[in-house]
Amino acid sequence: MAAITANTLTELTRLKVFYVLLLFALVLIGSSIFMARLTFQQEFQVLKDISLGAMSIFTSLLAIVATARMLPQDIEDRTVYTILAKPVPRFEYLVGKLGGVLLLLTITTLIMTALFLAVLSFREQAALAETTRQMAGLPQEQLTEALRAVRAATFNADLIPGISVLFLKACLLASLTLFISTFATTNIFTVVVTVFIYFIGHLQGTAREFWLQEHGGSWISRTFLAVVALLFPDLQLFNLADEVVTGAAIPLEIFLKTAALGCFYTLIYLLLATAVFNAREL
Amino acid sequence: MRLVIVLLGVLLLGGVKLPLEHHLFITRAAHRLQSTPLDLNLREQIGQLSFVAALSGFRAVIADFLFIQAHVAWERTEWSRVLLLFRQVTMLQPRGILFWDMAAWHMAWNASVAAFNNPAQPRLALRLKAQREYFDLGRDFLERGLQNNPDSPQLCEALGRLYRDKYKDHARASAYFEMMAAKPGAPNYAKRFAVYELSFCEGREREAYERLMALYATGEKERLPTMISRLKYLEEKLDIPLDQRISDAVRR
Q1: Considering only alpha carbons, which residue of chain B is nearest residue A55?
Q2: Is the confidence metric ipTM above 0.90 for this complex?
Q3: Predicted model pTM
């Protein structure tokens, strides 16, 4: 299993997926240069929003695109026959494949986080120096208060749970894509279906609440909403970044429950993928 | 057969995950961490694509782009556009205190001054009316911001400043500074500001004097020039006996 994971990671690395990081760095640095025109509070809020939004979209895309090609590619190259001809259970094969993608997502998220924190720290130092210069000659108490405001607007311990939840969403999407690819016939089908589920997943919360709170409506619309709520994951629950940027504290209870839900989905989709893959004739 | 397995598995998963998701949704709502639903009118204002992006978990990013557009509109002094864009921004991100604060500042401080000095409007009464309307727009942003962020001392302070500097309503300004002082994380000056404003209210001088004296008694750090000056003024006005007045040595 470890060999399959390592091999998958190597394959994905050869696809030059890390160019995504270059794009992320460009978005980050470009936006931070532009935002030097704003006040430090505006600048940091916009910088954090854009960085976390970019992280969300890049990790999600990476998870979908990297996973969608794995099984069809292995079938096309006939690698899957070589592997499964050995005493490797199909479950282990899928776990290995998913493990490779998750490892790639981990590395990517860590590098993006490091880049983000580095740019944030760089901008913070610039804002601190500027504030000190502007307030030279004023009482020490006022200067300390101003510097505290700059620091408070920059780093926020809740950024880490916010980023972790984005990573979990990407893991969920990777597992979901793997599941779809076990019965899909083409790469494109897998990507398109997962992207649709991504959009529906973000609207699902609204559908579920509408259904559960009995707002009325015809039985057709209620049945439709029930099916949507039952079939699709609520991806809006994996969005804590918006709240983190506005300064809201993320209670440990909510973070743990969200993380548990993410792990639950990843595991369930993996099991479903195994069930379908086991029944597939190769 | 495979399709049946998939459908059964997915439906079984749905049955298990639905209560879990609903529970998490309720917990998030209790901690005010649940995004507010988007108004369909917003779709017409920000366009179909942006609306879809906002629904897809990128509402903060869309709000930022609109905020940057509002910043550009402000640089061009296009006040109606600034107002429209800030309405969209605050609708997308009602938890963003900065957005409410900035929107109110642009309306009550910048647009109001521009309206008052509008060279295209020769009639003073109409310019004053326009200025007043912008004050009200600023106040509306802050009040709605406070409804969405009831724990924010920053918005209470902005409302206090608005009533103090624009409406010259010291009683309300004092009430908002008082409210600010009661919020978690309020700055030290909140209580002082509340009492300063109270000292300008006709008929409430005695209350203001007692509260200023209480603050004065807490120590040197509170004895700032404005406080001393307000105390001296109230001592004269209330005819406080000489032996009870603060020392003239602290007069600044």
Answers
A1: B58
A2: no
A3: 0.81
